[in-house]
Amino acid sequence: MPSVFLNDLDKIISEVSQYQDKMAKVGEFYNQMGRAPWETYAKPETVVIFDFAGSTSLKLKIGHELAMRKIVLHDKICRIIIKKLNGEVIKETGDGVVALFGNPLDACRAAINTLEIAVRKEIPTKASLVFGMFEKIKLASKIDVYGISMDTCARIEKCALENQILINSALHNAILPFLKDYDDVLVSEPIPVTLRGIPDKEIYEIASKHIGLQNAIAIESKKNRFKRFAINEKIELIRNAESEIIEVGFGFQEFIDHFGNFTGLRDFIKKLLKKGVNIKFLIVDPNWGIEELKTAEEALGEKCRILKNHLILLKELQTELDVEKLQGNLEIHLYRKFPLFQALCIDSDLDGRIIVSNHLHGIEESENIEIMISKTSDPLMFDSYRSSIKLLLKNSRLLKLSIGTNQKVMT
């Protein structure tokens, strides 16, 4: 299999090293590279934002002069790679450059090779790539790039960590078969994001095997994931589940309200089980909880009374689905602990998502804040909640062993 790395990578590194002692030729180099030609039409291309990471903190750490040398070297590395791989530099962004590539594979190779050289030269960098429609417009003597795809690339760049490359889902879908030809390239699982004003819901990380995937992103968009999630948002996430759903709660009242009645919820669950999704309801045992929770907090005791009625309906649903022998399982687990949080887990065994809210004293449930986390975005928090839920499952009482033919458990 071919390698993603350029054959003359060491030669480029040598050229960069020589250039380090010739800072006076920066202006000459810029003139040699030239400006991108002006085009007046929009077309599908791949935009790449190459950015020097953490320039301000680096200046404070090693001093202004040394930091500026690294910034100029970073600029040279980007421009050499862009030119070699048939891209064009559109503009500078202070500590970085924006480039366009007609071939999305060249764009990915440019990002990977730039990162490889930067890491060897101990230069902090990062890159974001977006495949989409772009329009180049000339204002006075400057050329700029516009469009929703350009805005998306800028948003994704804010999510990138030092020495990381992030791409949008359109580029991932277009380029994945070609990247598979390179045995020294890694591609991550989808990373869920919420980018302000941008429709993209997932991004991906690519890297060389030498550098490796970071499997985490800078959570610039985390502020958009702290909120009360609308029930239709949760329904959409559940509908797209691939393997497992775990609901840790009191009785699914908001889901019943959304579907209008329990029959609507039953039909929704049935569709999930048909495609092989395993569903686990993990709830407080109402026969234990009513008196204990009533003494602790009256509102929680009332929830358990509601839950007792829902539990009767769930048992009827289990009986009905048991006859159909669907591919997925429906399990009801009862635990006898004071409930500290509510959670909705979607494919947590596949690095999916968890929407969680803690029970806060004196705060109404309707006013409580939820957070959506994943192993990629919040690895420590994700593992903590997932471990707690696993322990609750382990110590719970399974109301009925299994429904259907599949018997997958949380691992």
What report would you give on this structure?
The protein is an alpha+beta fold and 411 residues long. It folds into 2 domains: 9-221, Alpha-Beta Plaits (2-Layer Sandwich); 228-398, 2-Layer Sandwich (Endonuclease, Chain A), CATH 3.30.870.10. The protein is built from 13 helices and 17 strands. The chain has helices at residues 9-19, 26-33, 55-62, 64-84, 104-120, 148-159, 169-179, 231-239, 253-259, 262-274, 286-296, 298-324, 379-394, and strands at residues 42-52, 87-92, 96-101, 125-139, 142-146, 165-168, 185-187, 191-192, 202-208, 226-227, 244-249, 278-284, 330-335, 341-346, 353-358, 370-374, 397-398. The strands form 2 sheets. Strands 1, 2, 3, 4, 5, 6, 7, 8 and 9 form a 9-stranded mixed beta sheet that branches. An 8-stranded mixed beta sheet has the order 10-16-15-14-11-12-13-17, with helices on both faces. β2 (87-92) and β3 form a beta hairpin. It starts with 8 loop residues before the first helix and ends in a 13-residue tail after the last strand. The model is unreliable at 35-39, 220-224 and 401-411 (pLDDT under 50).
Short description:
By secondary structure, the chain is of the alpha+beta class.
Major β-sheet annotation? 9 strands, mixed
* Structural domain count: 2
What CATH architecture of the largest domain would you give? Answer: 2-Layer Sandwich
| H/I helix tally | 13
Number of strands: 17
Note the beta-strand portion: 15-25%
- On the 0 to 100 scale, the average pLDDT is 79
CATH superfamily of the largest domain: Nucleotide cyclase, GGDEF domain
Task: Name the CATH class of the largest domain.
Answer: Alpha Beta
Poorly predicted ranges: 35-39, 220-224, 401-411
Helix content: 40-55%
